[in-house]
């Protein structure tokens, strides 16, 4: 008997991997298998890098955004940790990753977070400082945690010439980056479409691949709070995915046991949700579980196969 809708929690995410059981004639469970269940990959160390230059207005909107996000995070030494860095011409650390061990204390601190101020925007200095310092063990970074950086800014940087080297170092350190472009200043100053696009392109260059999962823009500071939930869903999906791809799943949503065929040699299970809903099959023998690789039945070059083929 199989229950393909069997689920489990990784952090704040529920994954549907399926379970099958060998049931006796008196309906006693003799044994069970759940071949799609994976260990939760790791906890998250999340560092916010906030542009606090004078053009950010009102600053309370940035604080409200942070509060909304943090209200949905489970903070703790064995859960997620959050650090906060702000910048203008220089950079300041406000919260170390291990500084707060519960949500209420962190939220109380963040509600009084001051604006950094400044007339220049040294975004790449801030990113590099966060990379080198915020993720240090001395500030609470954990070696087994995934590193996540959220960069929020409302304007082009004054140190874009550092972009290539800084982002390469972030890649080398396996830091997944989410970029948020706030267009309030550009709209208030009636900037041209070309200037707006140049700014957007810069923040896209900061963001990790795939860009559609890691880059966001909002029209002004006041609507930024509405982005908090969407950003949270993207980030917390990393708690169970095996790689740094917020919408790329392997067996987490496999629904193994959606179909089943039993023989003397093995049990063959259909797993329609595997590999981003392309689907696969799982063969369970007495001694092992055999699961094909992602591309065994799926050719990404096949224009007709496409995503969600449900093999």
Automatic annotation (TrEMBL):
SUPFAM superfamilies named among the record's database cross-references: Integrin alpha N-terminal domain, vWA-like
InterPro entries from the UniProt entry: ECM_Assembly_Org (IPR050525), Integrin_alpha_N (IPR028994), VWF_A (IPR002035), vWFA_dom_sf (IPR036465)
Origin: domain of life: Eukaryota
Domain VWFA: 45-231
PANTHER family per record: COLLAGEN ALPHA, VWFA DOMAIN-CONTAINING PROTEIN
Name of the molecule in the record: VWFA domain-containing protein
The species this protein was found in: Xenotaenia resolanae
